[in-house]
Write a structure and sequence with these properties.
It is a single chain. Helices cover about 40% and strands about 15% of the residues. The chain has about 280 residues and is an alpha/beta fold. The chain is globular and about 55 Å long.
């Protein structure tokens, strides 16, 4: 029987991974359970497992600009340590990365083999983590890039927008950032499908299909939960000055799934409807 280890198991994706692997032999370790930068602790945790899924990450995009060292420790050093331990144990490694490894200046979906060119500290640390995994475990690792995640198990954009509707007559949301809203439930199941298919090692883009702006996403959220989408007003990024730059275009291509004989993830609107039906937006 395959033995799975999930790091970052208390996070939004980590919780959905546990559900997607229900009934299997799974060790789920939260940040409090395992410091992924601690080589000895990681080696001990990985030993005896066949698959390691790294859902641990430093995701405070703005904070990373002023404390890149803290982000680097988790997002670059951590994957390096995990990859080293996984290779020693003969285990496969699934490392979850991000659209932020790209500059966001594209106009067509980014291919899996497109050169990375991050524009901020968070993206730089995640790109460094990818590079470490590829260098250490090129034949036994999967890098799965995610983006615009929402789910039941943690704070996220969808829940924030619904909460704001309770205290604001209208909400202003940007139209000049384009991406792929992605349900962590779908991503978790896709990662399991990737492993079950014995797919080739490499980079895969773990995002729901289609594309839309944050405005499109918010209007769709409001429609799903019975709020008036006309309460969502358009604005642009100049109205929200933040320490870290955001990629303007974060649409990822999905050709690697097709090459591996695995269906890409469904359209984001279909996934959002399913998530709403499952109570994810009201949890």
């Amino acid at each position: 029987m395959t033995r799975y280890l999930i790091t970052g198991a208390a996070g939004m994706l980590g919780q959905d991974l546990q559900q997607a692997l229900a009934g299997r032999d799974v060790t789920a370790l939260s940040r409090a359970d395992l410091d992924i930068t601690d080589q000895d602790a990681v080696s001990a945790a990985v030993a005896g497992h066949d698959v390691v899924i790294n859902a641990a990450a430093y995701t405070k995009v703005d904070d990373a600009e002023s404390d890149e060292a803290a982000a680097f420790a988790v997002n670059a050093r951590g994957p390096e340590v995990l990859a080293t331990a996984a290779v020693a144990a003969g285990a496969k490694l699934v490392h979850v990365s991000t659209d932020y490894v790209f500059d966001g200046n594209g106009t067509s979906p980014y291919a899996e083999d497109e050169p990375t060119d991050p524009i901020g500290a968070y993206g730089r640390t995640k790109a460094a983590g990818e590079a470490a995994v590829r260098a250490i475990a090129p034949d036994s690792s999967f890098i799965v890039r995610a983006a615009w995640l929402y789910g039941a198990g943690g704070p996220n954009f969808a829940k924030t927008m619904i909460r704001l509707a309770g205290s604001h007559d209208t909400v202003s949301v940007v139209t000049d950032q384009i991406g792929q809203p992605t349900w962590t439930g779908d991503l978790a199941r896709q990662i399991v499908a990737l492993l079950d298919a014995d797919a080739p090692a490499g980079i895969y883009h773990g995002t729901n299909g289609g594309e839309g702006s944050w405005l499109d996403f918010t209007k769709a959220i409001y429609t799903e939960v019975g709020l008036d989408p006309e309460r969502v007003l358009p604005t642009d990024s100049s109205a929200f000055v933040r320490p870290a730059p955001r990629p303007a275009y974060s649409v990822l291509g999905h050709d690697a799934w097709t090459r591996a004989g695995i269906a890409p993830m469904r359209d984001w609107r279909e996934a959002l409807h399913a998530a709403a039906e499952a109570g994810v937006l009201s949890s």
